[in-house]
Every structure is written in C-alpha cells, then in structure tokens.
Design goal:
The chain is mainly alpha-helical. It is globular.
C-alpha cells in the first residue's frame, strides 16, 4: 500500500468512526502504517508517511484518553483538509 492510499483508507475509517478511535484500532493503524511503502517516484509520499507516523505515535503515546481523543480529532481534520487538496489536484 502506498502512503496516499493508506491516508485515504484512514480518512474513510475515521469518517465512519466519527473521528473517535479506540486503543485497539489505533494499535492496528500503527501496525498497518509500518507496512506502507512510499512511492519512490513521488517524493512527497515519504514526507507524508513521516507526518502520519509522527501523528499516530503521538496518539499511541497520549497520556490519557482525553488527549488521545483530541489528537484523533485533529488527525481526522488534517486528513480531510490536506488530502482533499491532494485528491482535487489529481482530478485533472
């Protein structure tokens, strides 16, 4: 799976979950992200994967459920905003 495919899948998952994920889901997302291979022909994919890894790690390492929920909501918002721009750019 490529980075943008993963991000699109994660965005859909979070839309279905109302941007609230439980600990087991976050752990599975982190495991899945470890298997994502950025497209070598798309230099922005490596940056996107690093960004996703940082955001997912922050959720995994959150000190309490309130902080975890806030970080999930922010990730959902950012995925919707950033990847909506990316998807629109590919509609040409």
């Amino acid at each position: 799976m490529k980075t943008y495919q993963f991000a699109h899948w994660l965005k859909g998952l979070m839309m279905g979950a109302g941007s609230e994920l439980n600990r087991a889901q976050v752990d599975e997302i982190a495991k899945t992200l470890a298997h994502v291979d950025p497209d070598p022909d798309e230099p922005e994919e490596a940056k996107a994967k690093a960004w996703l890894e940082k955001r997912i790690k922050a959720i995994v390492d959150a000190p309490n459920e309130e902080r975890e929920a806030l970080l999930c909501k922010r990730l959902h918002r950012d995925l919707a905003n950033d990847f909506a721009k990316h998807e629109a750019a590919n509609d040409d």
